[in-house]
Design a protein that fits this description.
With 265 residues, the chain is α/β, with parallel strands linked by helices. It has 10 helices and 10 strands. The strands form 2 sheets. An 8-stranded parallel β-barrel has the order 1-2-3-6-7-8-9-10, surrounded by 4 helices.
Length: 265
Amino acid sequence: MRPADRRTVLGLHRSRHRRDLLTGALDLGVTALDTASNYLGHHSHRTLAAVAGDLLPKFSISTKVGYVEDGHSLDPARLRSAVERAAKNLGREPDTVLLHNPEQSTPDAETLRKACAVLADAAAGGLCGAWGVSTWDPRPLVGLDLPRPDVLMVRCGLLVSSSVLDAGEALVTGWRPAAVWGMSPFGGSPIAPVWEKVDARVFLRAADATPVQAALRVAFALPKVAAVAVGTDDTGHLRELVGATAYEINADVVREYRHLLRQAA
């Protein structure tokens, strides 16, 4: 796989949505943003348009709907309204809209299909370019059928449990998404204490990567994803993360790690 096939996405979950970060991302060749209707206290879309509306056409933007002011909802009317509101507040149609953590509403198969149909219809009608599902815990969704999504977004990286990794891969097999993306590759923060004890460079074929770069590169393989959303407010940190895509992993070590994870589980 060429480095160009691995895409670093600027995730805005914990970001302060600063203009200088967005311009810095563009300078580094990061041209994809990932946000959600509920990020920044439900003000992410408006804030992006206000601080960097002129920059947004230069980005591919993915956003998520499902969380509302009073909780989580898969109600078709509320989802349709959320997609329309996202386009209005951003000042442009998002490239991708994802159903945000549908497991939060413990849906049955019919409820999930109806919710996904809203997003598929929105994409067909030009309210967004593509649609999909983003799930923090895919386990409750295994076995539920739905129309083939354009994108499936799941947690990735060394801190994801074996059961969650297996469930995400089961969704890939069952749903056959056109693309699989990853999120939260550091399990919250690359400066968390665990990363002082875990050196992910053992998974790489080269030794000159930083530990942070190694952890991100391995996240592209746990599970296999084409893009990973990373959160930062530091352009220097983002530069380091972008450099991670150039490294090659040792597939044998990754396979052995998965085997050990399953044994431990």
